[in-house]
Amino acid sequence: MSNKIKIFWIFPIVVISLITGYLTTQGYFYDFDYTINLIDLLSLIATIYVGIFIAKKIENSRVEKDLVIELIKSTIQQSKIISEQVETNIMNFNTIKSELKKLSILLSDLEEYQKICNLESDSENLKIMFLNLKRLITVNSPEVGFITLSLGSHQTAKKEIKTLITTLLKCLVETNRN
Amino acid sequence: MNKIINIREDFSETPGARHISDGDFSGEEFFNKILEPKFLSLEGNEVLIVNLDGTDGFATSFLDEAFGGLARKYNRDNVLTKINFISIEEPYLVDEITSYMNE
Predict the structure, then answer these.
(1) For residues A119 and A68, is the Cβ–Cβ distance under 8 A?
(2) Which residues of B touch A75 (CB under 8 A)?
Protein backbone atom coordinates (compact mmCIF):
# COMPACT_ATOMS: atom_id res chain seq x y z
CA MET A 1 0.00 0.00 0.00
CA SER A 2 1.44 3.40 -0.98
CA ASN A 3 1.97 6.23 1.52
CA LYS A 4 -0.71 8.39 -0.17
CA ILE A 5 -3.36 5.70 0.36
CA LYS A 6 -2.23 5.15 3.99
CA ILE A 7 -2.59 8.86 4.75
CA PHE A 8 -5.97 8.95 3.01
CA TRP A 9 -7.31 6.32 5.42
CA ILE A 10 -6.06 8.10 8.55
CA PHE A 11 -8.56 10.96 8.17
CA PRO A 12 -11.84 8.95 8.13
CA ILE A 13 -10.53 6.64 10.86
CA VAL A 14 -9.78 9.60 13.14
CA VAL A 15 -13.18 11.20 12.41
CA ILE A 16 -15.11 7.95 13.00
CA SER A 17 -13.14 7.30 16.21
CA LEU A 18 -13.91 10.81 17.53
CA ILE A 19 -17.64 10.54 16.76
CA THR A 20 -17.90 7.02 18.25
CA GLY A 21 -15.98 8.11 21.33
CA TYR A 22 -18.22 11.12 21.83
CA LEU A 23 -21.48 9.16 21.39
CA THR A 24 -20.48 6.31 23.70
CA THR A 25 -19.33 8.64 26.51
CA GLN A 26 -22.54 10.69 26.21
CA GLY A 27 -24.59 7.51 26.60
CA TYR A 28 -26.85 8.13 23.59
CA PHE A 29 -26.87 4.49 22.48
CA TYR A 30 -25.55 2.40 25.29
CA ASP A 31 -26.35 1.63 28.88
CA PHE A 32 -23.31 0.20 30.57
CA ASP A 33 -23.89 -2.56 33.07
CA TYR A 34 -20.85 -2.74 35.34
CA THR A 35 -21.62 -6.29 36.49
CA ILE A 36 -21.29 -9.56 34.56
CA ASN A 37 -22.88 -12.90 35.37
CA LEU A 38 -20.98 -16.21 35.26
CA ILE A 39 -22.83 -17.57 32.21
CA ASP A 40 -21.98 -14.48 30.17
CA LEU A 41 -18.36 -14.65 31.28
CA LEU A 42 -18.07 -18.33 30.31
CA SER A 43 -19.81 -17.63 27.01
CA LEU A 44 -17.33 -14.80 26.31
CA ILE A 45 -14.33 -17.03 27.11
CA ALA A 46 -15.73 -19.85 24.96
CA THR A 47 -16.34 -17.47 22.04
CA ILE A 48 -12.79 -16.09 22.23
CA TYR A 49 -11.36 -19.62 22.43
CA VAL A 50 -13.39 -20.85 19.44
CA GLY A 51 -12.39 -17.76 17.46
CA ILE A 52 -8.68 -18.32 18.13
CA PHE A 53 -9.01 -22.07 17.43
CA ILE A 54 -10.75 -21.52 14.08
CA ALA A 55 -8.26 -18.84 13.01
CA LYS A 56 -5.34 -21.14 13.88
CA LYS A 57 -6.91 -24.08 12.03
CA ILE A 58 -7.52 -22.00 8.90
CA GLU A 59 -3.90 -20.77 9.01
CA ASN A 60 -2.49 -24.31 9.42
CA SER A 61 -4.69 -25.65 6.66
CA ARG A 62 -3.47 -22.87 4.34
CA VAL A 63 0.18 -23.77 5.02
CA GLU A 64 -0.53 -27.43 4.20
CA LYS A 65 -2.41 -26.53 1.05
CA ASP A 66 0.38 -24.20 -0.11
CA LEU A 67 2.89 -26.99 0.38
CA VAL A 68 0.86 -29.42 -1.74
CA ILE A 69 0.07 -26.76 -4.36
CA GLU A 70 3.80 -26.00 -4.80
CA LEU A 71 4.49 -29.70 -5.29
CA ILE A 72 1.67 -30.08 -7.82
CA LYS A 73 3.08 -27.10 -9.75
CA SER A 74 6.55 -28.71 -9.84
CA THR A 75 5.01 -32.00 -11.00
CA ILE A 76 3.12 -30.23 -13.80
CA GLN A 77 6.35 -28.49 -14.81
CA GLN A 78 8.21 -31.80 -14.96
CA SER A 79 5.36 -33.40 -16.95
CA LYS A 80 5.61 -30.55 -19.45
CA ILE A 81 9.36 -31.18 -19.88
CA ILE A 82 8.56 -34.80 -20.76
CA SER A 83 5.65 -33.73 -22.97
CA GLU A 84 7.97 -31.52 -25.02
CA GLN A 85 10.37 -34.42 -25.53
CA VAL A 86 7.56 -36.81 -26.46
CA GLU A 87 6.27 -34.25 -28.96
CA THR A 88 9.58 -34.29 -30.88
CA ASN A 89 9.55 -38.12 -30.99
CA ILE A 90 13.34 -38.17 -31.06
CA MET A 91 14.11 -38.72 -27.39
CA ASN A 92 17.58 -39.16 -25.99
CA PHE A 93 17.41 -42.47 -24.10
CA ASN A 94 19.42 -41.39 -21.04
CA THR A 95 17.74 -37.98 -20.81
CA ILE A 96 14.17 -39.28 -20.99
CA LYS A 97 14.98 -42.05 -18.50
CA SER A 98 16.29 -39.49 -16.04
CA GLU A 99 13.34 -37.08 -16.60
CA LEU A 100 10.90 -39.95 -16.02
CA LYS A 101 12.65 -40.78 -12.77
CA LYS A 102 12.26 -37.16 -11.62
CA LEU A 103 8.55 -37.28 -12.43
CA SER A 104 8.15 -40.58 -10.59
CA ILE A 105 9.81 -39.09 -7.48
CA LEU A 106 7.57 -35.99 -7.62
CA LEU A 107 4.41 -38.08 -7.98
CA SER A 108 5.27 -40.33 -5.04
CA ASP A 109 6.21 -37.25 -2.95
CA LEU A 110 2.85 -35.72 -3.84
CA GLU A 111 1.05 -38.88 -2.74
CA GLU A 112 2.95 -38.79 0.56
CA TYR A 113 2.30 -35.07 1.21
CA GLN A 114 -1.41 -35.47 0.48
CA LYS A 115 -1.59 -38.33 2.97
CA ILE A 116 0.24 -36.32 5.64
CA CYS A 117 -2.01 -33.30 5.10
CA ASN A 118 -5.19 -35.41 4.93
CA LEU A 119 -6.01 -33.96 1.54
CA GLU A 120 -7.97 -35.83 -1.10
CA SER A 121 -5.81 -37.23 -3.85
CA ASP A 122 -5.99 -38.92 -7.21
CA SER A 123 -2.62 -40.56 -6.63
CA GLU A 124 -3.52 -44.12 -7.63
CA ASN A 125 -4.84 -42.86 -10.95
CA LEU A 126 -1.77 -40.65 -11.48
CA LYS A 127 0.52 -43.57 -10.69
CA ILE A 128 -1.20 -45.82 -13.26
CA MET A 129 -1.01 -43.05 -15.88
CA PHE A 130 2.69 -42.52 -15.17
CA LEU A 131 3.54 -46.23 -15.36
CA ASN A 132 1.63 -46.59 -18.64
CA LEU A 133 3.47 -43.59 -20.05
CA LYS A 134 6.88 -44.83 -18.93
CA ARG A 135 6.18 -48.23 -20.42
CA LEU A 136 5.10 -46.74 -23.74
CA ILE A 137 8.26 -44.63 -23.99
CA THR A 138 10.93 -47.01 -22.71
CA VAL A 139 9.72 -50.54 -23.44
CA ASN A 140 11.51 -50.75 -26.78
CA SER A 141 15.22 -50.57 -27.41
CA PRO A 142 16.70 -47.23 -28.48
CA GLU A 143 18.47 -46.85 -31.77
CA VAL A 144 21.89 -45.23 -31.49
CA GLY A 145 20.92 -43.75 -28.13
CA PHE A 146 17.58 -42.31 -29.26
CA ILE A 147 13.98 -43.51 -28.91
CA THR A 148 11.48 -42.97 -31.69
CA LEU A 149 7.97 -44.28 -31.10
CA SER A 150 5.76 -45.84 -33.76
CA LEU A 151 2.92 -43.63 -35.02
CA GLY A 152 0.35 -45.40 -32.81
CA SER A 153 2.52 -45.37 -29.67
CA HIS A 154 3.44 -41.74 -30.28
CA GLN A 155 -0.24 -40.70 -30.41
CA THR A 156 -1.02 -42.75 -27.29
CA ALA A 157 1.97 -41.32 -25.41
CA LYS A 158 0.92 -37.75 -26.30
CA LYS A 159 -2.61 -38.50 -25.10
CA GLU A 160 -1.34 -40.10 -21.86
CA ILE A 161 0.89 -37.16 -20.94
CA LYS A 162 -1.88 -34.69 -21.75
CA THR A 163 -4.30 -36.60 -19.50
CA LEU A 164 -1.67 -36.70 -16.76
CA ILE A 165 -1.21 -32.91 -16.91
CA THR A 166 -4.98 -32.32 -16.97
CA THR A 167 -5.44 -34.57 -13.93
CA LEU A 168 -2.70 -32.65 -12.09
CA LEU A 169 -4.37 -29.34 -12.97
CA LYS A 170 -7.70 -30.63 -11.62
CA CYS A 171 -5.88 -31.73 -8.50
CA LEU A 172 -4.42 -28.22 -8.15
CA VAL A 173 -7.84 -26.58 -8.44
CA GLU A 174 -9.45 -29.05 -6.01
CA THR A 175 -6.69 -28.55 -3.43
CA ASN A 176 -7.03 -24.79 -3.65
CA ARG A 177 -10.83 -24.89 -3.47
CA ASN A 178 -11.26 -27.27 -0.51
CA MET B 1 22.51 -64.40 5.68
CA ASN B 2 20.72 -62.52 2.91
CA LYS B 3 22.50 -61.51 -0.25
CA ILE B 4 22.48 -57.96 -1.54
CA ILE B 5 22.81 -56.38 -4.96
CA ASN B 6 23.33 -52.64 -5.11
CA ILE B 7 22.80 -51.84 -8.78
CA ARG B 8 24.67 -48.54 -8.66
CA GLU B 9 27.72 -50.04 -6.96
CA ASP B 10 27.71 -53.55 -8.39
CA PHE B 11 26.64 -52.76 -11.95
CA SER B 12 26.14 -49.21 -13.19
CA GLU B 13 24.84 -45.77 -12.35
CA THR B 14 23.36 -45.59 -15.84
CA PRO B 15 21.48 -48.84 -16.54
CA GLY B 16 20.78 -49.22 -20.25
CA ALA B 17 18.12 -50.83 -22.40
CA ARG B 18 17.08 -54.48 -22.98
CA HIS B 19 19.67 -56.41 -24.96
CA ILE B 20 23.46 -56.45 -24.95
CA SER B 21 23.23 -55.39 -28.61
CA ASP B 22 21.44 -52.18 -27.47
CA GLY B 23 24.57 -50.86 -25.79
CA ASP B 24 26.30 -50.81 -22.41
CA PHE B 25 24.76 -51.93 -19.12
CA SER B 26 21.70 -53.62 -20.59
CA GLY B 27 19.13 -55.67 -18.69
CA GLU B 28 20.46 -58.79 -20.39
CA GLU B 29 24.02 -58.03 -19.23
CA PHE B 30 22.80 -57.37 -15.68
CA PHE B 31 20.85 -60.62 -15.71
CA ASN B 32 23.79 -62.68 -16.96
CA LYS B 33 26.56 -61.13 -14.87
CA ILE B 34 24.87 -60.20 -11.60
CA LEU B 35 21.24 -61.14 -11.08
CA GLU B 36 21.11 -64.77 -12.13
CA PRO B 37 24.39 -65.83 -10.42
CA LYS B 38 23.35 -64.13 -7.16
CA PHE B 39 19.88 -65.65 -7.34
CA LEU B 40 21.29 -69.12 -7.93
CA SER B 41 23.71 -68.73 -5.02
CA LEU B 42 20.86 -68.33 -2.50
CA GLU B 43 20.78 -71.07 0.09
CA GLY B 44 17.95 -72.21 2.36
CA ASN B 45 15.80 -69.31 3.45
CA GLU B 46 18.15 -66.66 2.13
CA VAL B 47 16.59 -63.70 0.35
CA LEU B 48 18.11 -61.56 -2.38
CA ILE B 49 17.79 -57.85 -1.61
CA VAL B 50 18.10 -55.57 -4.62
CA ASN B 51 18.84 -51.91 -3.91
CA LEU B 52 17.60 -49.77 -6.80
CA ASP B 53 18.60 -46.36 -5.45
CA GLY B 54 21.33 -44.09 -6.78
CA THR B 55 21.02 -44.66 -10.52
CA ASP B 56 19.83 -42.10 -13.03
CA GLY B 57 16.68 -44.10 -13.78
CA PHE B 58 15.58 -47.41 -15.25
CA ALA B 59 13.96 -48.08 -18.60
CA THR B 60 11.05 -50.51 -18.75
CA SER B 61 13.08 -52.60 -21.21
CA PHE B 62 15.89 -53.07 -18.64
CA LEU B 63 13.55 -53.98 -15.79
CA ASP B 64 11.46 -56.36 -17.88
CA GLU B 65 14.48 -58.12 -19.35
CA ALA B 66 16.24 -58.55 -16.00
CA PHE B 67 13.53 -59.12 -13.38
CA GLY B 68 10.69 -60.22 -15.67
CA GLY B 69 13.21 -62.57 -17.27
CA LEU B 70 14.17 -64.02 -13.88
CA ALA B 71 10.50 -64.67 -13.04
CA ARG B 72 9.88 -66.30 -16.41
CA LYS B 73 12.94 -68.53 -16.11
CA TYR B 74 12.72 -69.61 -12.46
CA ASN B 75 8.98 -69.56 -11.73
CA ARG B 76 7.29 -66.34 -10.75
CA ASP B 77 6.07 -67.41 -7.28
CA ASN B 78 9.45 -68.89 -6.40
CA VAL B 79 11.27 -65.71 -7.45
CA LEU B 80 8.81 -63.38 -5.70
CA THR B 81 9.36 -65.15 -2.37
CA LYS B 82 13.15 -64.96 -2.70
CA ILE B 83 13.64 -61.40 -3.82
CA ASN B 84 13.02 -58.06 -2.11
CA PHE B 85 13.50 -54.59 -3.50
CA ILE B 86 14.67 -51.39 -1.86
CA SER B 87 13.71 -48.16 -3.56
CA ILE B 88 13.58 -45.24 -1.16
CA GLU B 89 14.09 -42.66 -3.90
CA GLU B 90 11.50 -43.96 -6.31
CA PRO B 91 8.83 -46.02 -4.49
CA TYR B 92 6.79 -46.67 -7.68
CA LEU B 93 9.66 -48.79 -9.04
CA VAL B 94 8.83 -51.74 -6.80
CA ASP B 95 5.24 -51.97 -8.07
CA GLU B 96 6.49 -51.50 -11.60
CA ILE B 97 8.98 -54.37 -11.36
CA THR B 98 6.45 -56.62 -9.62
CA SER B 99 4.00 -56.01 -12.48
CA TYR B 100 6.63 -57.15 -15.03
CA MET B 101 7.35 -60.23 -12.93
CA ASN B 102 3.66 -61.06 -12.77
CA GLU B 103 3.11 -60.87 -16.53
Answers:
(1) yes
(2) none
Is B57 in contact with A135 (Cβ distance < 8 A)?
no
CB contact under 8 A, B90 and A94: no
- Contact check, Cβ <8 Å, A108/B92: yes
How crowded is residue B33: how many other Cβ atoms within 10 Å of its Cβ?
12
pLDDT tens across A62-86, in order?
888 899 999 999 999 999 999 999 9
Query: Which residues are bridge partners to A90 per DSSP?
Result: none
Distance from CA of A63 to the nearest CA of B (A): 25
pTM: 0.80
Give the model confidence (pLDDT) of A94-139 as tens digits.
999 999 999 999 999 999 988 888 777 788 999 999 999 999 999 9
ipTM exceeds 0.90, yes or no: yes
Nearest-CB residue to A94 (from B14, B19, B21): B14
Asked whether the predicted pLDDT for residue A29 surpasses 70, the reply is no
B-chain residues near A157 (CB < 8 A): none
Name chain A contacts of B93, Cβ cutoff 8 Å: 104
Each as own residue / partner, the long-range contacts of residues B25-30 (CB below 8 Å, 24 or more positions apart, any chain) are B26/B62, B26/B65, B27/B61, B27/B62, B27/B63, B27/B64, B27/B65, B27/B66, B27/B69, B28/B65, B28/B66, B28/B69, B30/B62, B30/B66
Q: d(Cα A79, Cα A94) in Å, to the nearest integer? A: 17
